[in-house]
Design a protein that fits this description.
alpha/beta
Amino acid sequence: MHWKLRSLNWLNMTKTLRFHWSMSSVGEELKGSKARNQVSGVPDIDKHIEFCEHATSCGIEHVLTAFGFHRTDPIALAAALSMKTSKINFLVACRSGVASPTLFVQQINSVSAISNGRVCINMVAGHSPKEFRFYGDMLEPNKRYDRTDEFLTICNKFWNTQEPVNFAGDYYTVENGTLNTPFVSDSRSAPEIYLGGKSERAFELAAKHASCLLTLPDPPQEMRPKIEKLLKSGTDVGLLVSIITRETREEALEAAYSLIEPLGDSSLKAHKDFMKNSVSEAFNSVLHLGQNEKDWLCPYLWVGAVPYLGAPSISLVGSYEEVAQALMEYKDIGVTQFLFMGWPDKEEMSHFASGILPRVREMETSNVESIRTLN
């Protein structure tokens, strides 16, 4: 093995896996089974606070506040929850077409000042041209990443320099941009940026701007060659994936199949309609997998719920030991972060905390000791 690649593999294996959780379904179980125009965007703040506290107790680092017309505004939600919590961090989803980069930086910096830096960014390109137009975003879908490139370039100028920001591009122009609210944190001068996507362009932008690429999973050996170049750039790779785990495999399989048993034609129609209107390569690729008769991509990666609950319901399924081993297989190819969803979330989070996390940390310690012995 080439020494640079070997060094990269050793570096990834010595990293501690980081775990995050989506708040997309808080307050309404199986929200993903409904058409988006049937979902309430009014948050139950008490349930969100309870979720955040539970996540902290389960070893979760960030919770995601997602973006969409059917949701609460993610920045406002993160700001509100930061006032009622003290430890959990917020991964705030955003799109480049809904606000100027200057205003966006001002908003994120304001949340950092309120929360002492407990905020980072999940930059997503979006998936529905129809929804883009809700926000006055008429840009052709194939130009979204070019605009996002300019957007993040301007954001990083605000975070990484003390001078007024000047920028002239195809989509944005900023003249002598100045903000009196800096990013406030004890440990960072700028937020981490998680860029979502699965296309070649998403990989390019992640290497240029992001701390981590968040993508939907393939089996590890299929993913390895796709992410190698990105890892060499120094950018982390993370997976958006659901999790269904129990003490035994039989119990996990029962939980998985009982999840979709009560879901019917309305759920299937909702996601078929979504796929017709989606321009997301990441979501569409998984939704197409869900249309096939094959439920399993490998012994622990299940797409059986995808036709009913959408692309993010592609799931790691198995016993505690099996799922812990699966996470380590992904770590072996360079995946070091995971953004989980659960069905239901709090129950799966508890299974993760009691059954998966201790095993993963034990395996990580053992691997680091082995590497030190080899060196």
